[in-house]
Amino acid sequence: MSISFYGNELINIAIGIERRGIVFYDVLARSTKNAKARDIFHYLVGMERDHIQIFKNMLDEADKYEIAETYAGEYAAYLQALVNSAVFTDDLATSEMATRAESDVAAIELGIGAEKDSILFYYEMKEIMPERARPTIDKVIAEEKLHLRQLSDLKKELAA
């Protein structure tokens, strides 16, 4: 059995994830007193903006895809669960989380969780997008993994 699923729906979810990342990292950049952390947060804001543009460019080629499922609605429910369990669910909550973090390390831990959520979502997105879109999604995944490493390194440095 399969359902109709639109590639543009996935891409718009990805754009939303990146927008919330911008809000989060921008708030962190403005609230930290640590210059290195501020530089990394500003860098991440720029990268999230780049990802939005990449996904917007993909919207032009978004097609309708048929997804094999074991029961009706299975994949849509799975993707919705991924989105619902994401660290950042909307801009207001994202901003509040960033401002309420007790320390830079606590805020970075939230960012690490968000990057992991993004990577998981993009791997799933890659599975159902057409072959021609996969190299672009691979690029975004590689950049999200880089963000994860950068945040992990910064956390170690700040915790020391």
Detailed description of the structure:
The chain is mainly alpha-helical and 160 residues long. The chain has a single domain, classed as Ferritin (Up-down Bundle), CATH 1.20.1260.10. It is built from six helices and two strands. A two-stranded antiparallel sheet has the order 1-2. Helix 1 runs parallel beside helix 4. The mean pLDDT is 80.
Quick summary:
The protein has 160 residues and is mainly alpha-helical. The chain is 76% helix and 6% strand.
CATH architecture: Up-down Bundle
Gyration radius from CA atoms, angstroms:
16 Å
Q: What percent strand?
A: 5-15%
CATH class: Mainly Alpha
Structural class: mainly alpha
Number of strands: 2
User: What is the average per-residue confidence, as pLDDT, rounded to a whole number?
Assistant: 80
**What is the helix fraction of residues, given as a range?**
over 70%
Low-confidence stretches: none
Topology:
Blueprint: E1 2-6, H1 7-31, H2 35-59, E2 64-68, H3 74-84, H4 91-100, H5 104-128, H6 134-159
Antiparallel strand pairs: 1-2
List keywords for this structure.
160 residues; mainly alpha; Ferritin; 2 strands; 6% strand
